[in-house]
Amino acid sequence: MVSNKPHTDLRTVWVSLKKGADLIGLATLQFPSSEYKLVAPAFISNFAIKKAFQGQGLGSYLFEQIEHYCSDYGLRKIILESTAKNTAFWQAVGFVRNIQNPTVLFKLLPTKK
Ligand SMILES: CC(C)(COP(=O)(O)OP(=O)(O)OC[C@H]1O[C@@H](n2cnc3c(N)ncnc32)[C@H](O)[C@@H]1OP(=O)(O)O)[C@@H](O)C(=O)NCCC(=O)NCCS
To answer: Listing from the earlier edge strand, what are the strands of the sheet with 22-32?
Structure first.
């Protein structure tokens, strides 16, 4: 059957990291509706820390907040696309390359008891 309806009902949220009133980091997180959370991954994009604040652990902190959110929601996997320049960061926070497509990285989340 052909349908224009997406297989999963994706929700999109913007995640921001602020210092006082200043925006110093942001990311976009897309995740499936509850019905698909055990089979469909979350997708991170537009992940960035403002240049003056890079190298201080804030990227790791922002990702940890996203990871906790995904884990608490009951998701099993996070995926993203990375440039070669940023792959070391994503590997440092636990991502591994997809063998079929090395620009895609994924991280499996522990199963909730
Ligand atoms: C990639 C980025 C998000 C990392 O954020 P950050 O706050 O600088 O990263 P952290 O300080 O939390 O670094 C965590 C670990 O990642 C690794 N890492 C971070 N940047 C790295 C780099 N450029 N090269 C190699 N390793 C890097 C380090 O191992 C670091 O661990 P350490 O504590 O041992 O140094 C940030 O540099 C950035 O916003 N870059 C530009 C925007 C961009 O291209 N975003 C990515 C889109 S996918």
So the answer is: 10-19, 22-32, 42-49, 77-81, 104-108, 96-97
